[in-house]
Amino acid sequence: MLHSTKSASASETDSRLSLLDIVMQALEVTGRIPTTQPETGFSDAFTADRISDFYVEELNGGWVSTLRFRDIPEGLPDALGSPDIMPYRERRDAFLHGAGILCEIVTGSRELPFTIVGDHLIVAAYGA
User: What is this structure's pTM?
Assistant: First the structure.
């Protein structure tokens, strides 16, 4: 599986996988998705089955990542990500930060299921 970390135009994005799909597929093909929700450093409300979106956007002169959640109890934020007041200089770094949070929520570990080479994500997996 190979994906680019470069920005895409709106028409290209329509036919491409979302960032959430890319990370989740990489976790799936590497066998890293457990059958039960693992313990994490986050509130019990932030579970894999409640993740609704993962995106990176330009903000405050840099880049931030956001994970959105559905059905979050009142009083808790419906998003986790990099701080808006401390954006990353590079889009790639914001993506890696958000992908790490996503991996921790899904697997219990921030270990990423891919390697980055240049502008590409490389997933190495094999199956029977």
Answer: 0.85
